[in-house]
Amino acid sequence: MSVLNLSNIIRVSVSDPGRGLPGVNTSALALITDEAPIPNDFGDSRIYLDPSGVGEDFGTSSETYRLASVVFAQTNNLIKGGGYLVVIPRTQSAAAQPATIIGSGNVNLTTLTATDYNINAAVDGGLAADLLIGEIDTSSIAAAEADLNSTAVTAAGLVFELSGQDVSSVLVTLKTVATGAATDITIDLAGTGTDIAPLIKISGTATGADTGVERVKDTILRTRGGVPYFGIILNEKQTDANLTELANIIQSLDKLLFVGSNLVADVQTGGIFKTIGTGGLTHTRCLYYSVSENDALDFAAGYASILFSINFSGFNTALTMHLKDFAGLVADTGVTQTVLDDAAKAGVDVLADFGVAKIFTSGLNLFADQIYTRLALKVDLQIAGFNYLAQTTTKIPQTEAGMNGLKSAYRNIMRQYVNVGVYAPGTWAGSTRFGDPEDHDRNISEFGYFIYSQPIANQSQTERTARIAPLIQIAAKEAGAIHSSDVAVLVEP
């Protein structure tokens, strides 16, 4: 007897959701070293969960091993945060490199609607000049890149490179075509037409590099798309010029750089740490320890490991670096009250002697945990939004229901950051509010955050045609931390 297939009656298909992005490991710390590894097959980098492997690959007398030992010696270290140490050797015979400026953040190309764009640049020691770009086709990243590389731009020896998922969020990089230490770019204000530099977040000065040992800056540019890392420590102190350029590069990336110095002049007025601390370069964390350069580098390494011990999947795991213990170094007796005051004015953290060795942080350059958790939140929200859109097997409708689903993905992230202790319910003190002011204040007081999007009905037809979601705005109240206290005692006989 023939048995008929059940598909005549019931038809079932099984599908998997679309592939999403994995989470970024915000406790991954890179040690960039100029020491050459022992194994010939080391590759570009290796990941370690303890210092023993570093000793095998670089030798137990190496600076790289010493720094790795400090990283893992901290009671609360990056392993607690679910992280790892990745060691990246600088190329010993690197090719000559161009001067490179990376935009300070992503740009929405659709806002570039003028027809007379110019950029003012001095290239390779030449005089500054306005370079005509003209109108920019923002229909695609490739089209915009082609227009940015106008006749005047290419004739000056420059090239724009754009990277991103779509035209609404693009990172702009400007390079010299020529390579070597004699190449350089300086961006200034355009005197004719519409100055495009601030609109694409390009500014500052950059220099190239000759062949030889790779610069730290070029190591980061070479490896940032490879093995993931969120923080960077170094095995040698940088020159002021190199550190200035490096700090500007780091500010444009979702990464943190930890640098140490034993020179008190770096902390004082006119010093490089004071320049960084008061210059808004918050992604570079400056640490001072007076005894020796190696001790200062150790302080930066251990400090980074303690900060990266935050586990963003946990509960009440957030921390502040203020008054934390440090394993491997004694209190720095060179930190006098004068030095402490200078460090506080420069946003530099120290390991001071309060009768017991404790990290002291002033927060002038914002507190390290503020910058770290804000960067972590940024990448977590990016991934949550991307995965919500990418993992559907159909589509997210451009309706309020679709927006509610997208905001729910962001809400899950905000809720977790409240659980961790980064944000907390409180009173909104600022004057800026969005949506219904009462809803804004109530959500902050009850949950610690507020998520709002403009109604779909109010969206412009241009955005709707481009299938861009209405702007989603998030307000969050930091939980903060208690770092000091005043006590007034009234005694009556």
Oligomer: single chain
In round numbers, the mean pLDDT is: 94
The major β-sheet equals:
8 strands, mixed
Which range does the strand content fall in? Answer: 15-25%
- Strand order of the main beta sheet, please? 2-3-1-12-13-14-15-16
| Radius of gyration, in angstroms, nearest whole number | 26 Å
Count of spatially separate domains: 3
What does this structure look like?
- With 493 residues, the protein is an alpha/beta fold.
- The chain folds into three domains: 28-94 and 212-369, no CATH class; 100-207, no CATH class; 392-476, no CATH class.
- Helices cover 29% and strands 19% of the residues.
- The strands form four sheets. An eight-stranded mixed β-sheet has the order 2-3-1-12-13-14-15-16, with helices on both faces. Strands 5, 6, 9, 10 and 11 form a five-stranded mixed β-sheet that branches. Strands 4-8-7 form a three-stranded antiparallel β-sheet.
- β12, α6 and β13 (256-261) form a beta-alpha-beta unit.
- α1 (52-58) runs antiparallel to α2 (63-73), α2 (63-73) crosses α8 and α10 packs antiparallel against α11 (400-420).
- The longest helix has 23 residues, at 368-390.
Quick overview of this protein structure:
This protein has helices at residues 52-58, 63-73, 141-148, 151-155, 216-223, 240-251, 272-278, 293-307, 337-346, 368-390, 400-420, 437-447, 461-465; strands spanning 28-33, 46-48, 84-89, 100-102, 117-123, 129-134, 158-166, 169-176, 184-188, 194-195, 205-207, 231-234, 256-261, 284-288, 349-353, 357-360, 449-453, 472-476.
